[in-house]
Amino acid sequence: MVRSGVPTTLAISLALAGAGSAQETPAADPADVESLDALVAALYDVISGEAGAPRDWARMHSLFIPGARLIPSGPDPEGEFGYVVWTLDEWIEQAEGWFAENPFYEKEIGRATQEWGSLVHMFSAYDSRTSPDAEPFARGINSIQAMRDGERWWIVTIYWTAERPDLPIPGELGG
Description:
Blueprint: H1 9-17, H2 30-33, H3 36-47, H4 57-63, E1 64-75, E2 81-83, E3 86-87, H5 88-101, E4 105-116, E5 119-129, E6 138-148, E7 153-162
Parallel strand pairs: 1-7
Antiparallel strand pairs: 1-2, 1-3, 4-5, 5-6, 6-7
């Protein structure tokens, strides 16, 4: 229930956060953001390519809200669970050096989606390869939070972990 004169949680949150807007990001190709399928396809497409092939970082930025976060998680070599929280620019900085020396192709192999109003959560199972036809060298799940602002879809957060022997991808997602 909202009472007259009492700021809503959204209004308070937007005021505290400085309310990012689409004007802070490059314009998206409408085809990339017209549906969840298009958004996810654009995400995997923009990060895939040969070693040293430039990625279209403006296109990548156009898919994400300002302030979006990318969060890899999982056990380190000693078996301790951890995570890192990156901005999109911090993730790009990390990935760019790796992509310069390594071919990388990632594709979606299954998805489960929950949607409530403008809120969407997708478990997007993926596999990673050194070429489109190579055997996967990694698999996992990207937990993608997305929103629709009334005109287009945006990625808000991607939180992921790799598949491992004690954590197989569920069968309904391609496991």
